[in-house]
Design goal:
Shape: elongated
Distance between the termini: 30 Å
Number of strands: 4
Helix content: 40-55%
Strand content: 5-15%
Number of helices: 4
Oligomer: single chain
Strand order of the largest sheet: 1-4
Largest sheet: 2 strands, parallel
Order of helices and strands: HHEEEHEH
Structural class: alpha+beta
């Protein structure tokens, strides 16, 4: 399988990204948030909320989980 980036280039990219992250951003990568924390509305009216995302994960998150199972988002 060929990729756009060599393994060496990918390692350099990761090293650069991690070196530019704050301690708070690195710590945030250890956690996750439920998708229900990031939406407004119910059922078919549920939509991603940038406002809620900024409140819930101001430094990022390692994962967002249960997208389809917990919301009406598709």
């Amino acid at each position: 399988m060929s990729t756009r980036f060599s393994e060496h280039a990918a390692s350099e990219l990761v090293e650069t990204m991690v070196s530019e992250m704050s301690l708070e951003e690195k710590l945030a990568q250890l956690g996750g948030v439920w998708s229900t924390q990031l939406v407004e509305g119910e059922g078919d009216q549920a939509a991603f909320s940038p406002r809620k995302a900024a409140e819930v994960m101001p430094n990022g998150a390692g994962q967002v989980t249960r997208i389809a199972a917990s919301t009406g988002l598709r």
